[in-house]
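Notes, Module 5: Reading structure tokens.

Key idea: the token line is not a picture. It is a compressed description, and you learn to read it the same way you learned to read a sequence, by spotting repeated patterns. We will look at two proteins. The first is printed below with its tokens.
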Amino acid sequence: MKQALLNHIVNILLLCAGAFLVVGVIYLDVAIFKNNIGEISATEILQEIVLFAVSALFFWQVKRQPALRGGMMLIGGFFGCMFIRELDAAFDLIYHGSWVYFACLLALFCIVRAALTPKTTLRGLSAFLAHPACHYTVCGLVLVLVFSRVFGMNAIWKVVMEGEYVRAVKNIVEEGTEFMGYVLCLGATVAFIRRKEPLKTL
């Protein structure tokens, strides 16, 4: 009981540290680097690092947990495609929108590999869905894919600022929310990998 309570306290403190990190990096961009949190900013770079870490950790599980191989491959591929999407500005140097082709290649590779071992795919996905880390991951993805996009709409902030629209404010809200979502996903991934309890499935 005491150990479980201690674990929850540690998790809360780590989430708080993640929140402070997000705010600190945004402050660094705005107050020190004097940028509007565009494609080249500390916030964007750290988002990409976090996404890469999440994807790499799941791909690491492909070798570390053979019984879960297919499921870990699909989850790692999903976050890998998100990582490629975050690098769209770099891929635009090839030509605009080329990130789609690289993401599709990665997705196809992961789907084919997962299809070759259907039992490990179902077992891996089921094990992740049954673990509490899945709930944090879903919350993080909702922040990234839904809330940050909707709450960061230009139309909202133009109304809020009543004709004195400053794009940096909109960027802070959108990118800050997105960054926090990625931090939640990373925390959940680490929690899943470091689990000590026996794996359950749905």
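Here is the second protein, with the sequence above and the tokens below, as before.
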Amino acid sequence: MTKSSSLGASRALVAVYAVFALAASARGIYELIVKFSLAPVSYSLSLVSALVYIVATVALANSRKPKWFAVARATVWFELVGVVTVGVLSLAVPSLFAFPSVWSWFGAGYGYVPLALPIVALVWLGRHRP
């Protein structure tokens, strides 16, 4: 892979994380203000996912620096563990997720991108150490 195509892939990955950060933040804030009492577990997890996407976006954008690379890797691992944990929990105890979160059902409502995205990011990080 050439340096320019690597830079393009990096920018695309950061852009996808940025879109998820904005979408999850807007959704989480709306749910907190308007309907938090209907499904506090689900809506709390939406806010957690928003925070994870924000940190991951910033860390991935700066991942050429060793400190940020470490933050990016830790955040993306946390994201993957979160998606899998919440996905399993939403299948095991669906009553907790009467209203879906970004990570419930492994991100099915988002085309499973929440499950695939951290895997892609971890592969990218593995190939592009600073």
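Summary for the second protein:
- Helices lie at 3-34, 40-61, 66-92, 113-127.
- The mean pLDDT is 89.
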